[in-house]
Amino acid sequence: MRVDRSVLDAVGNTPIAELRRVVPRGSARVLAKLEFANPTGSMKDRVAKAMVEAAEKDGRLRPGGTVVEYTAGTTGISLALVCAAKGYRLRIVFSDAFAEEKRRTMEAFGAEVRDVTSDHHRITEALIKEMVATAERLARVPGHWFCNQLSNRDGAAGYHPMGEEIWQQTGGRLDAFVQAVGTAHSIHGTTEALWRRNPRVEVVAVEPAESAVLSGRPTGSHHIEGIGIGYVPPLWDPKLVSSIEPVSTEDALRMTRRLAREEALFVGTSSGANVVAALRVAERLGPDASVVTVMVDSGLRYLSTELFRAP
User: Has 270 been annotated as catalytic?
Assistant: First the structure.
């Protein structure tokens, strides 16, 4: 056993587990990367650490500086952890469209949170763009660094280790990787690592069916937090995916509840969406294949939402 010098050294090296009860007979094996085992309970610890450390390295972020970011909450919590560990101030642009637990967690780490009011708690293109613009204005103050996750090219590298971990944990025996798209950092970074090992691994992107812009459909509103920004992310690269699976909010909610009750996996709605899509891929590939997907974050940050209110 080792003793980490900092909580940030505990980011990554998360477990992987096979799903047993939600996978129909005759389908491929489905493995879930348990990213809620990261320090804040989400995979976003990886990208927050990577973006901040890249900005430190090239001088964009200096000692005593302030980080500014817009967030649906999960990346904001991870940035709050990193900033607390490294001694930076953090100013966050958030919204009432997202879970209240996320706001409280960011504030607990010392972040200053400013709200942009949503249209009846709906996640829409207009909301995301207003949040981005608000953060951009806040970052004009001297000594402030605008993280700007959607356009930050340092983000994907934060997920190269996740791809390498998946390769090692599966012994290289995987046929498909399935992951939901928010900024696109996690799917692209993991894919880059996996394709260096085997370019034949199928990569399936997941997006909300109600706002399936990556599939060429109209923008819309949905309730799958952390993904589906309502427009094509600036760093989206269609060459790094094999196909796209739209998943409805209702299907994602239903599967997330099943994961808690049938697999003892207490996760958020984007994880449920991932499993819905992974099961479609597993059915198509058949029993001799293996599919890997991601449990993005913990269900603990969604207790105030509709997710776990259903009987």
Answer: yes
User: Which residue segments constitute the domains of the chain, with CATH numbers given?
Assistant: 7-37+154-308 (3.40.50.1100), 44-151 (3.40.50.1100)
The pair of structure tokens assigned to 189 is: 């970074």
The closest alpha carbon to 85, from 48, 133, 120, belongs to 48
Q: Within the chain, which residues score under 70 in pLDDT?
A: 310-311
CA-angle at 78, arms to 220 and 181, nearest 5°: 30
C-alpha gyration radius of the chain: 18
Helix axes 249-263, 269-285, angle to 10 degrees: 90
CA dihedral 189, 216, 148, 11 (to 10 degrees): -30
The two three-digit tokens of residue 20, written as one number: 């047993």
pLDDT tens-digit readout, 226-260: 999 999 999 999 999 999 999 999 999 999 999 99
DSSP string, 264-296: ---B-HHHHHHHHHHHHHHHHH-TT-EEEEEE-
- By the 10 Å C-beta count (0-12 exposed, 13-18 middle, 19+ buried), 199 is classed as exposed
Q: Which of 27, 33, 44, 78 is catalytic?
A: 44
Tell me whether strands 29-34 and 16-18 are parallel, antiparallel or unpaired: antiparallel
> At 91, which helix (H) or strand (E)?
strand 89-95
DSSP state for residue 16 in the 8-state scheme: E
CA 69/CA 54 separation, integer angstroms: 16
Answer whether 245's CB lies under 8 Å from 280's CB. yes
Active-site annotation holds for 33: no
Q: How many helices (H) and strands (E) does the chain have?
A: 8, 10
Considering the entire predicted model, what is its pTM? 0.94
